[in-house]
Amino acid sequence: MDELIIAGRSFKSRLMVGTGKFASNEAMVAAMEGSGSEIVTVALRRVDVDNPQDSMLKHIDPERYLLLPNTSGARDAEEAIRLARIARAAGCKPWVKLEVTPDPYYLLPDPIETLKAAEVLVKEGFIVLPYINADPVLAKHLQEAGTATVMPLGAPIGTNKGLRTRDNIAIIIEQATVPVVVDAGLGAPSHAAEAMEMGADAVLVNTALAVARDPGAMGVAFKKGVEAGREAYLAGLGKQQDKAEASSPLTGFLRDKN
Amino acid sequence: MEITFNGRPHELTAGTSIQELLDQLRLDCLQVVVEHNHNIITRQRLAETALNDGDTLEVVHFVGGG
Fold first, then answer.
1. Smallest CA–CA separation between A188 and chain B, in Å?
2. Is A97 one of the catalytic residues?
3. Cα-to-chain-centroid distance, residue A28
4. What is the pTM assigned to this prediction?
């Protein structure tokens, strides 16, 4: 059985889903179910006492899904550490998707603050899954610091552009001693399949599901993309080359000389 | 007295506990996490922790996120 193992815990699904931006809790649940995911991310925000909302956690079965709180909104290591501790105090397992994004325009992760926060959180016993730009050197520093995965971005969050960082992700995969989870920017099942064909261990998708006309069906489509990519990777893809190589035999034509 | 509640000034009676404030605001203590002057307050300690003038309170909960 080909399972994804993160920090000693095994998962059948290699597709993680985010829960943001869905039009309704029902749409979110449909996407989660369709995707077959076992890991779902959530964020922490201040309660709005003027607009009380139904708790989204009521819709997520903790037996079925591992809740992965993120530190989105954190602009530096200190804020990210604070959010991780709050999530743990909320009763979550000590897993955290570490996200430090000081720049609101491209939401690119800050490598220095991310590494600082990772070092502290690992020491505090957190299982840290850091969201990073596709920087192979940073990925190495993080795995050496004891993070459970590295999560390089394919493209900026919510852009649906696919694997724009493909070459660097290939280097990260080659050097990785922890699972590589491609996160952010994957807008179509073909993008997810491409990441998995390259040897990524898993992918995380949110926006593509949340903005789909039918989030449940899109969850299924991504599940198939991830599975196809993984199976192709395991089966062994052919090498790309410039010169044609005939699939049919070149001998025995109906002429005197070949 | 006045505290800062989620970044905004909030008037309340002196001696109010955090649990009492949550009740007044109809917030379920099982659904939120409370930070009092930057220290996380566990659920068991919400009732015994009194608020003082000038305190900072952050009350957060889970929302959808990627």
1. 16
2. yes
3. 17
4. 0.91
